[in-house]
Specification:
This protein is α/β, with parallel strands linked by helices. The protein has one domain: pyruvate-formate lyase- activating enzyme (Alpha-Beta Horseshoe). Helices cover 36% and strands 21% of the residues. The protein is globular. The chain binds iron/sulfur cluster.
Length: 335
């Protein structure tokens, strides 16, 4: 399965020409109109656009050099969240947390200094007593990014023989074929995010269909990758029990026997914000309303999360359903 993205305009920092990937991308998109920018962090033309142009903005591509390389400790599947080769996305999930400040981080930015970023990971891994796992996909979707840059292929090929450490990332995309024949050496954990088909079609615009995501999981397991399933973000629509019960039973029916033996689960309840609400109102017509003020409560300035009794009900529901359909599989966490 292949995907082809042709940007409308490329905004680029001049110094990308000094990097191998920068040269490759400039050549690949030589026919696309280009605008030179001072910094990928501050693009005047983007800052001035209105919320209604949100989707149009995502048809552009920003290419620059990543300057911040700060690792943030994490205590879930990984030990560190690591800024990596991209930030933002060309898909448009209505809850995407990268929307935090859409004029700065919702559209796809590619960073061409991948050698520097991977070297820092390898050095940190080798210097640690523990076998560390690095989350490299918390700022974008790397499977989608790989269709533009081949960065995942490059990363796996340059990480598979390192002494220590693992890499992990989540995805909502099924474009995994380029990864299947790579020698990953058991050092890569891929977590496929799933939601009921109704939510995928009406909230996760531009992402892969549920069936395709499940096919991708089966292929990755067959290729001996370590694979997890993220049921995320759980959205408590009025018929949520039915939607998620059907989803879990669909997983049971459609995952391969090998996948059913190996996968683990993570479950994350949706959080939302005032900014999401403002953008979604103006950018999407006929949208499903995912913010329900009766079900959510504040969690800091302009941010919302589900009320604790609903989260508790959800937790009991998912533990119950997963123990029925997937009783041997580990649930890493429900949050
Ligand atoms: S696929 Fe992921 S990164 Fe892209 S819009 Fe959806 S949630 Fe955001």
């Amino acid at each position: 399965m292949k995907y082809k993205f042709k940007p409308e305009t490329i905004y680029y920092e001049n110094n990308i020409e000094n990097y191998e990937l920068g040269k490759i991308l400039l050549e690949k998109y030589k026919d696309v109109p280009k605008i030179q920018i001072e910094s990928h962090n501050n693009i005047k033309q983007m800052r001035e656009k209105s919320n209604s142009e949100f989707l149009k903005m995502k048809r552009n591509l920003i290419i620059g050099v990543r300057k911040t390389h700060k690792f943030v400790e994490n205590h879930k599947v990984s030990d560190y969240l690591v800024p990596y080769t991209s930030s933002g996305c060309i898909a448009s999930c209505m809850y995407c947390y990268l929307v935090c400040n859409y004029n700065k981080c919702a559209y796809l930015r590619l960073f061409v200094n991948r050698e520097e970023m991977l070297q820092k990971i390898i050095k940190t891994a080798n210097n640690s007593d523990k076998d560390l796992t690095f989350e490299i996909g918390s700022n974008s979707d790397l499977i989608l990014e790989n269709t533009i840059t081949d960065n995942l292929v490059w990363t796996i090929e340059n990480f598979n023989n390192t002494k220590k450490g693992k890499l992990t990332f989540p995805t909502k995309f099924a474009y995994v074929d380029d990864l299947l024949n790579l020698n990953h050496n058991g050092k890569i954990i891929i977590r496929m995010s799933v939601n009921p088909e109704y939510i995928i079609n009406n909230v996760e615009f531009g992402t892969s269909k549920l069936k395709d995501r499940i096919d991708a999981i089966n292929k990755l397991v067959e290729a001996d990758y370590e694979v997890g399933i993220l049921i995320a973000p759980v959205i408590f629509l009025d018929n949520w029990q039915k939607l998620y019960n059907d989803l879990i039973s669909y997983l049971k029916e459609n995952l391969s026997e090998k996948a059913k033996k190996k996968i683990f689960f993570e479950i994350i309840f949706m959080t939302y914000s005032y900014v999401h609400n403002a953008i979604n109102k103006e950018a999407f017509s006929n949208k499903v309303e995912i913010y329900d003020k009766n079900k959510m409560t504040g969690r800091g300035k302009g941010k919302y999360m589900y009320k604790s009794d609903l989260k508790k009900e959800g937790e009991i529901f998912f533990k119950d359903k997963l123990s029925k359909y997937f009783k041997e599989n580990k649930i890493w966490y429900i949050v």
